[in-house]
Amino acid sequence: MRQLTRFAAFSRFCRRSPGAMFGVVLFMVVFSVDTAMAGEATDVTVAGFARETPPGAPMGVAYLRIHNGGARERRLLRVELPRHPDASAQLHSTVREGGVSRMRPLSEIELPMGQSLEMQPGATHLMLRGVRLAAGENLPLRLIFADGGALEVEIPVRAEAPSEHRGHGHHHG
Ligand SMILES: [Cu+2]
Known about the structure:
Blueprint: H1 2-16, H2 18-38, E1 44-51, E2 59-68, E3 74-80, E4 88-97, E5 100-105, E6 109-111, E7 116-118, E8 125-129, E9 138-145, E10 150-158
Parallel strand pairs: 1-10
Antiparallel strand pairs: 1-2, 2-7, 2-8, 3-6, 3-9, 4-5, 4-8, 9-10
The structure holds copper (II) ion.
C-alpha cells in the first residue's frame, strides 16, 4: 500500500518534470552497473595452459599465471570448470618430504596487491579430475574469490609444458 502511494507520487513527479525523471533513471542504471561490477574480479588477469591428458592418466593438470593488478589483496578460493560439470579442479601445492614429492590441496591462494602467482610443474598447480583434454582445445575456467567476485577465463590445452621440452630448444627469430 505504502509502495503504491510512493509509485503514484513518483508518476506525478515524472509527468511534471521529465528531465528530473531521466536523471533518476540514469542514476538507477549507473548504480546497478556499479553493483554488478563489484561482483567481478576485473583487476585480476589470468594466463596459462592445461596439459593434454596422457592416455590412461587418471588426472590432468593446468598451470595458471594469476596477476592481481588491483588495489587490494585477493584470495582465490577455488576454480570451477563451467563446461565440465562432472569434473573438478583442485588447487594443489607440491612439497618435498624426505626426498619424496607429495601434493597437498590448498584451501586458498593469497594474491597480494600488485603481485603474481605463477603455477608450475613441481610447485603450485591446478589438478583436474574427471575431464580428458586434447591439445588444441580450450578449457573454460571460473575463478571464485573470497570476496564473492568471479572471473571467467579460457586457457589453451597444450601437448606438453614448455619447461618439459627435451633436447635443444627452438629458437625463433
Ligand atoms: Cu596435484
